[in-house]
Amino acid sequence: MEQQFIQQLAQYGFSTHEIEMILLVAQPLELPTRHILVEQGETSDAFYFVLEGLCHACYLTDSGKQFSKEFYWENDWIIGFESLIKSSASPFLLETLTPVSLYSLPMSTVNEWRTQRHPIYMRLLEAQFLHKEYKERFMLLYTPEERYRFFCQHFPELKERINDYHIAAYLGVTQVSLSRIKSRDHSDN
């Protein structure tokens, strides 16, 4: 597990010294399906790197609705930057959707990197900003039908691993709308 983590860190552009620093504080975890990593409204004491499996972050409303924030799978970082920067509780729930192998790193470590403006923190921040830019463009510039097609083309492995409820929530549509989109898409092909 450690070797896979080291390889992924190297691919992210971390130096040998930076990788050694990360390994000093990283803790490997094997978690079951439906394990809560962070409760909405609670403070997280860790951030994560996913080696295998699938995690889901979502917002829960007082009326019981759930809105998908993001899915995280192999080689993804999971960092609650809002909580980190504002020293506040997590605005979302984070759970595993499948059995997961990941590394947990103390939030205090990333906070130190932040304070020092360490290159590791800057790399993580840049990766997160790029991802958010892509997601924003995805949600704003494409119709629900286009988002579904894009999702199917670019994330076919993810499509097979999650149910329609989660796909619909990720695309920002209802399950009924997703069913209609899939039906139209199927009849067009």
Automatic annotation (TrEMBL):
Q: Which residues form the Cyclic nucleotide-binding domain?
A: 13-53
State the coiled-coil residue ranges. none
Record-given protein name: Crp/Fnr family transcriptional regulator
What the entry lists under CDD domains is as follows:
CAP_ED
This protein's source sits in the domain of life called Bacteria
Species of origin: Vibrio gelatinilyticus
Q: Which InterPro entries match?
A: cNMP-bd_dom, cNMP-bd_dom_sf, RmlC-like_jellyroll
